[in-house]
Amino acid sequence: SLTIGIVGLPNVGKSTLFNALTKNDVLAANYPFATIEPNVGVVGVPDPRLTKLAEIFDSQRVLPATVDFVDIAGIVRGASEGEGLGNKFLANIRESDAICQVIRAFKDENVVHVDGKVSPKDDIETINTELILADLQTIEKVLPRLTKEARLQKDKAAVLAAVEAARTVLEEGRTLFSAGITKGTDTGVLLHDLHLLTTKPFLYVFNVDEEELVDEDFKNEQRALVAPAEAIFLNAKIESELIELDDDEALELLQSMGQDEPGLATLARVGFETLGLQTYLTAGPKEARAWTIKKGATAPEAAGVIHTDFQKGFIKAEIVSFDDLVACGSIPEARAKGKARMEGKDYVMQDGDVVEFRFNV
Ligand code: GDP
Questions:
Q1: Could you give the C-alpha distances from 334 to 9, 50, 318, 337, in angstroms and in order?
Q2: pLDDT tens for residues 240-266?
Q3: How far apart are alpha carbons 284 and 25 in whole angstroms?
């Protein structure tokens, strides 16, 4: 599955946030015998539609989609010059599918900032610099060979041009992601074999004081700072308290702070989006469940997420949109009203599809 690596300078609240994430671990709750790496937190993506489906189908349990967060410990500054820990830090980031930087914005004299002052802008630059330098090193390493090959092979000329374009962006001190060069783009595809770090999608968690949670001016400033990446605002300490409370108490505390969901829930949802993922839904008496697919997945590919045999033997998918199902109240009623569609193997799954697959075994 796809993972989001959590990075950040020391003392910004990474461990506090990560501990809250792992306590929220849905794997541990639903699969008590699954082995989970200590540095991985598997977090449920909140989806109120599942509760509604569980009502309609009288399901025994609800299984949300999940996002894997990986705690990437290690030194930050100087990583790109790296031996030992620096290399491990970069290798861990290379294995992640998205990069989530935790940034300190809370004020607390008792917690030392490594650079002596709280400055989200400087902290972002510190991390970016290491990643940019690492990418530049990768590029310098391949350039001589690539230049030679490009003289003889047409297809390599396109790769060379992409690599040179990437180098220009990086030399300006920008990440490739911020310049719009990501995995899915034409240039990104040509760069694929280099496994560059800064083509990965970024997202930012601002660990803020309670006042800032509702300070729209402050939040807009930070959003502008990190665009096109998403910004999430939470207080890691409060998050770690929230998970100890039952749902009603947690909601009351959240509402007293002007929030409608825990920051961890927002983080899971935005993280899931950032990874380019989407869900479809299934429901029955056993469970109401969200299944994870890539955006643009076809019906057979979606079936394959449940079981490879479902994909191999795929015949049709019976689909009712969630909204139609709720309006009709049941599958038979949706069928009677012509709201159930039979889709074939070219169908591209849509968000909110409630599905039952027909397949040969
Ligand atoms: P890490 O080094 O980035 O993993 O940071 P930690 O999670 O260990 O946090 C460093 C210190 O900051 C600890 O003493 C935390 O209790 C404190 N801390 C973390 N989050 C917050 C916060 O939101 N507000 C305040 N005031 N302190 C925090």
A1: 53, 18, 11, 5
A2: 999 999 989 999 999 999 998 999 999
A3: 24
pTM of the full predicted structure? 0.90
Residues 6+ apart with CB under 8 A from 344: 299, 316
Ligand 1 centroid–CA 238 distance in Å is: 11
Measured by CA distance, the residue closest to atom 19 of ligand 1 is 13
CA of 94 to the centre of ligand 1 (A): 26
Tokens of 323: 């909204």
Query: Could you give the CA distance from residue 143 to residue 147 in angstroms, rounded to a whole number?
Result: 6
Burial class (CB in 10 A: 0-12, 13-18, 19+), 147: middle
Q: What is the ipTM of this complex?
A: 0.97
Tokens of 257: 């702070």
Distance 208 CA to ligand 1 centre (A): 11
Note the pLDDT tens digit of each residue in 162-190.
Answer: 999 999 999 999 999 999 999 889 999 99
Rounded to whole angstroms, how far apart are CA atoms 189 and 180? Answer: 13
Both structure tokens of 116: 């002596």
Return phi, psi of residue 252, to 5°.
-60, -45
> Does an H or E element contain 70, and which?
strand 66-71
Q: Is 90 in the pocket of ligand 1 (CB under 6 A)?
A: no
**Residue 236, ligand 1, Cβ within 6 A:** yes
Tell me which residue has tokens 């207080």: 235
Rounded CA-CA distance 143/160 in Å is 8
Domains plus CATH for the chain? 296-359 (3.10.20.30)
Residue nearest atom 1 in ligand 1 by C-alpha distance: 11
